[in-house]
Amino acid sequence: MQPSESIDEKRNFKRVPMGCPASYQVMNTPTKKEGTCINISAGGVLLECDYRYPVGTKMNISLTPDRSVVPYFSAVMEVVRVKPSSNHDGFQLGGLLISEKHLDSLGVHWDA
């Protein structure tokens, strides 16, 4: 990355601010948890939650937007980045949206 080039300029997809409720469930665990979807793009999600998950964690997420920019949907994401929340209460998880085909190639099976 060039010194003057920002991360936003390197993104493949534009991020849409959301600030909506999100529920998520780490694969192979029985418990659903709640968080907030900070933003979303065609390739990823920024999820704010109370727990720190390691990079590589796969989880099913469901979003319930309060506006019609993005309809309700459910997807599988893989955590690719973790940092403390800007308010220092919880964590922000940068997630890559992955397809069922990708999961099959990893040998992971998911029953949402």
Structure in words:
There is one protein chain. This protein has 112 residues and is mostly beta strands. The chain has one domain: Thrombin, subunit H (Beta Barrel), CATH 2.40.10. It is 10% helix and 46% strand. The protein has 2 helices and 6 strands, in the order αββββββα. Strands 1-2-3-6-5-4 form a 6-stranded antiparallel barrel. It is globular, with a radius of gyration of 14 Å. The model is unreliable at 1-9 (pLDDT under 50).
- Which architecture does the CATH hierarchy give at level 2? Beta Barrel
Strand/helix succession: HEEEEEEH
Q: Record the strand order, biggest sheet.
A: 1-2-3-6-5-4
User: Tally the helices: what do you get?
Assistant: 2
CATH top level assignment: Mainly Beta
Strand content: over 45%
* CATH homology-level superfamily: predicted glycosyltransferase like domains
Number of domains: 1
CATH fold-type name: Thrombin, subunit H
Mean pLDDT: 80
Low-confidence stretches: 1-9
The largest β sheet comes out as: 6 strands, antiparallel, barrel
Distance between the termini: 38 Å
CA-atom Rg in angstroms: 14 Å
Shape: globular
Q: Could you give a quick summary of the protein structure above?
A:
The chain is mainly β and 112 residues long. The protein is built from two helices and six strands; from the N terminus they run αββββββα.
